[in-house]
């Protein structure tokens, strides 16, 4: 029996599971590939991050191509922070040639947050313009309308923040992303099922599949750091208290992730697991 692709499963209204694996800070991809192989049978695609948090790592294009070579379906994250429109289009054409089809188009964290704060950010395009560019490539043209020798066939997604306020502004941005070619959303981590439900009601009119983000917390300190530093993401005080009062906060974080994954699965088209380096926990969340 042939296994459906990530795109085919979403198009067939089947539930999907994706997970995030960080590429290495170096050129040795042994651990990255080993981790990816270990979870490949239980997820539909693996997100390959693009210098996440503005911290330099190996090219996600190279890492995604290595997954394709292994028979593992990647979601190639592309941010606008580091490359101008020529470089973005060039990398996307390269991705197409290497058999990469799933793209998550992101604006990207500002470079001041990362390990090279003295660097110069680019932001030639934003995520909506990047999606429009990819849509043009899919129709055989570059972003200036020049003809390509072949079309790409990308399946594009975008990020969403169900907790962000005001909700109306979030929906306005997502309407622009859908119009630009996004067909699925991977959300920031959800910690409040009621807010997720409200968000889903607000995007029902859009041709977007919603994959809910599930973040594995390690401690109350990690949760408080997120609340202080990540816009659009709020961890409720009762979850922080659960972690703070637990004899083993890491185990409690896993328990909370499993609970939220179960709740989100009843509402969404899929879940996206962000284990933050603890990918060995993914099978428990999936189960």
Keywords:
287 residues; alpha/beta; 41% helix; globular
Q: Which structural class do you get from the secondary structure elements? A: alpha/beta
Strand order of the largest sheet: 1-2-3-4-5-6-7-8
Largest sheet: 8 strands, parallel, barrel
Average pLDDT confidence is 95
Rg (CA only) = 18 Å
Kindly estimate the percentage of residues that lie in beta strands according to DSSP.
Answer: 15-25%
Distance between the termini: 22 Å
Helix-strand sequence: HEHEHEHEHEHEHEHHHEH
Helix content: 40-55%
Total strand count, please?
8
Parts with pLDDT < 50 across at least 5 consecutive residues? none
Helix segment count?
Answer: 11
Envelope shape:
globular
Q: What do you see in this structure?
A:
The protein has 287 residues and is an alpha/beta fold. The chain contains eleven helices and eight strands. Strands 1-2-3-4-5-6-7-8 form an eight-stranded parallel β-barrel, surrounded by five helices. The two termini are 22 Å apart.
């Amino acid at each position: 029996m042939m296994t459906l692709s990530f795109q085919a499963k979403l198009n067939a209204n089947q539930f999907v599971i994706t997970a995030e694996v960080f590429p290495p800070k170096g050129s040795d991809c042994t651990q990255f590939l080993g981790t990816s192989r270990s979870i490949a049978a239980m997820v539909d695609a693996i997100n390959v991050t693009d210098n996440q948090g503005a911290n330099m790592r190996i090219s996600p294009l190279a890492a995604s191509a290595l997954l394709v070579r292994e028979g593992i379906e990647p979601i190639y994250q592309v941010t606008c922070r580091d490359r101008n429109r020529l470089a973005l289009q060039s990398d996307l054409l390269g991705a197409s040639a290497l058999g990469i089809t799933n793209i998550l188009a992101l604006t990207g964290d500002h470079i001041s947050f990362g390990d090279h704060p003295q660097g110069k950010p680019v932001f030639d395009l934003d995520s909506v313009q990047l999606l429009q560019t990819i849509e043009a490539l899919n129709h055989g043209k570059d972003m200036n309308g020049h003809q390509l020798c072949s079309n790409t066939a990308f399946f594009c997604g975008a990020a969403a923040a169900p907790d962000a306020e005001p909700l109306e502004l979030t929906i306005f941005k997502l309407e622009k992303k859908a119009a630009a070619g996004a067909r699925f959303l991977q959300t920031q981590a959800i910690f409040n099922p009621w807010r997720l439900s409200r968000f889903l009601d607000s995007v029902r009119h859009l041709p977007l599949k919603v994959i809910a983000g599930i973040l594995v917390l390690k401690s109350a300190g990690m949760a408080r750091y997120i609340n202080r530093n990540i816009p659009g993401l709020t961890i409720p005080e009762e979850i922080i208290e659960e972690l703070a009062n637990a004899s083993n906060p890491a185990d409690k974080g896993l328990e909370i992730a499993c609970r939220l994954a179960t709740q989100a699965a009843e509402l969404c088209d899929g879940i996206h697991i962000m284990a933050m380096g603890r990918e060995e926990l993914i099978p428990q969340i999936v189960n």
